[in-house]
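hey can u check if this looks right to u? its 146 residues, i copy pasted from the old doc so theres a chance i mangled smth
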Amino acid sequence: MNVKSGIFAVLAALGLTAGVAAGALERLAQSPSATAAPAQPPSGMRVYYMVFLRRGPAWTAAITPEATKISHGHRANIDRLTKEGLMVVAGPFEGTSGDRALTGIFILRVDSMEAAQAAVDTDPAVRAGRFVYEIVPWWGPESLRY
């Protein structure tokens, strides 16, 4: 799954119309930099930061005490970010495979790319190398809440 199809899938899962999804994809395609946040979102919208998690160099399917501890820490970190109002959406993908398989997504309500990176870098699974990530600015409705 590439970033554009991932964005479309998330928009569809959030119940947004095909027109909104197509507009978001068109803006992404026309953007000179996929990591630069837009200067001025349209009325009723705001910039979120969509985080695509992939299997990292330390990922393994083995269920070990260490992997279990990291997984619990990952979920606790999601809960913490949600309670702080930073996390809007979090969840895994199913049916992916391969060394760099897409494993999950976060949508963050933060003010900058740097703040998004700082939030993701608190994740124990990221720190342990089980996940790596890519962050893409995304325009979504201001009303979006977890």
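The first strand starts at residue 45 and ends at 55.
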